[in-house]
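Changelog note: in this version the structure field was regenerated for every chain. One regenerated record is shown below for reference.
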Amino acid sequence: MGNSTVSNLDDNASAAAAPVPAWPPAQLPTSPVLSLASFGHASAPAVPSILDAPERRYVTSGRVAIALALRQAGVQPGDAVLVPAYHCASMVEPVIWAGATPVFYRIKADTAVDLDDVAGKLDGRCKLLMATNYFGFPQDLPALRAFCDAHGLQLLEDCAHAFLGSVGGRPLGSWGDYAIASSMKFFPLYEGGCLVSARHPLATVQLQSAGAGFEIKSMLNTLESGWGYGRMPVLRALSWAPLQLKAVLWRLLKARRRADAAPLAPGSSDGGFSFDPRWLDKRSSLMSRLMLRLVSRRRMGALRRRHYQQLQNALGQLPGCQPLFAQLPDGVYPWVFPLKVEQPQALFRTLKSRGVPVVRFGEFLWPGVDASVCANSVTLSRQVLQLPCHQELRASELAWMIAQVRSAVEASAA
């Protein structure tokens, strides 16, 4: 769900409480940014996605979608929810909000769900299994579906890392009772997530607009994030005067807002990890919903695979480094390129100081989740660094990032 940018690998506290170093700005976009090329169609087959589900609701973040899924699944105070031990805080906080107890289960070294460990944790309280398709690589979803059916569990398919793809001829998101995704990780959006179901109606999930301020902020931030990395310069020049007026009006609006007023946008859009229930009934912005319809999935899928393979070819044989996944199977459309490294702390600091947009998923595990709970989760949280491979990376940006990583790794090995 969230992306960690902090650096203390030995701290097992929540990321929300950890200090964030003042790293220089990233020299290329960590997530997709809007450009004219976003709407182009690559010469590739149609790409299945979580949006192929018949029931869909567009919300402001993946964590909100998790909370709504728990509510739809009938999770009540006193119930237990099975959560992977490799996680970020924004996956766990909706469970706490629902009044349920998170029961952390083991994953294997390749991030696969350890079903033997899950089976050993089942009791009368367990109502739902949350399974994450890490970094865009799907779990064995037919096996998970069969396991849940055999044990009377509902399955929540966490596609926050895996918006695109299919398993067994069915799109991701169709194997779970419910599935969630974080569209911000795949589309050039300021905010956005979705809750879908191929098995249950979502008629009781009623959403409303978050207001004009939210709609305007979502549109402008989507545009400005692209302008900040040199995209659409002509549009930026034409928008100069309106943006100056916007800045003045925004300052006036902030000055008049009460200190306890609800924020104009969810904290998830600005990198926060906390769960705010005030966004449970809020619909994703019109700008975000338009982008989901207009941005080319074919181009997204083709370029993500191409960029991932370039990173794997360039970095996979560096000393002290290995790709988390040995191969990129057909039909997998990765969120990021996860690289397992032997000296992660020093490399992370070096790359961040150079403006390389490296992140770490699950760097801060929930308090109490340590090697005795799942040694693999601790190892992955400490040793796996993620580099962007999204579709909006320019060839020059990708080449620069590869050069920086190679230089940093070779310097540390010297």
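Spot check on this record: The two ends are 35 Å apart (CA to CA). Residues 15-37+296-413 form a domain with the Aspartate Aminotransferase, domain 1 fold (CATH 3.90.1150.10).
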